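Ticket #4471: structure export looks truncated?
Reporter: QA, pipeline team
Priority: medium

Steps to reproduce: submit the single chain below to the structure queue and open the exported record.
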Amino acid sequence: KDDVNVTITFKDDYNLYKEITVFDKNKKIVNIKTNENAIRFTIKNPKMWCNEYPFLYLLKFIINNEVIYDYLGIRFVNLKNNILNLNNTKIKLLGVNHHDSNYKTGYYLSLSDYKKDLRIMKEHNINAIRTSHYPPSAELLYLCDEQGFYVMDEADIECHGIVRISGTYNANDFD
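Actual output as written to the record:
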């Protein structure tokens, strides 16, 4: 495996104090303190993310006195002879559309709803999700990273029946 060079760029007009620590299974890999707007570091011999072994590095950011946690998955995606490869291994996407829908709460899904949906998908050998018509919640995307789902984010924000074909709106059309 090759080492991975990571650059994280901040939009910072105030030159704030920044610090980042990268963890691998509770072991600190790198800690950088800077006032620069770009933090660069190298992960040597990285553990690669894939749907069967979805490994995530934990990132701890300190910006001034605020602490923010996030995750980083490292993977190599390419096409070889029109075949999708992840980390130099052929993959086959077995996917479904996902809509935020619950018979009790309507378009709202709780964290446990998302977890239940993903558990059922895993039990049925689903490894890919297409989010349909609207942006997915951050919680769903995190769970997909954590549990090993490929995500195609389709958020075209459709407006069925709201606009006439000519693109004009007339209040009398809804009488």
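Status: closed, not a bug. The export was complete when the record was re-opened. Leaving a note from the reviewer for reference: The radius of gyration is 21 Å.
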